[in-house]
Amino acid sequence: MSIRKIIVVGSMNMDMVVKTSHIPKPGETVLGGDFFMNPGGKGANQAVAIARLGGDVAFIAKIGQDIFGKQSAQLFDDEGVDTRGLLDDDVEPSGIALITVDEFGENSIVVAPGANAHLKPNDVSAILEEYPESDILLMQLEIPMETVKATACYCHANNIRVIVNPAPANLALLEVFPYIDVLTPNVHEAELLSGVKIVDISSARKAAEVLKNKGIQHVIITLGEEGAVVLSEDGFWHVETLKVAAVDTTAAGDVFNGALAVALSEGKGLREATKFACQAAALAVTRLGAQASIPYRKELLLDNLI
Question: Are 277 and 239 a contacting pair, CB within 8 Å?
Answer without folding.
Answer: no
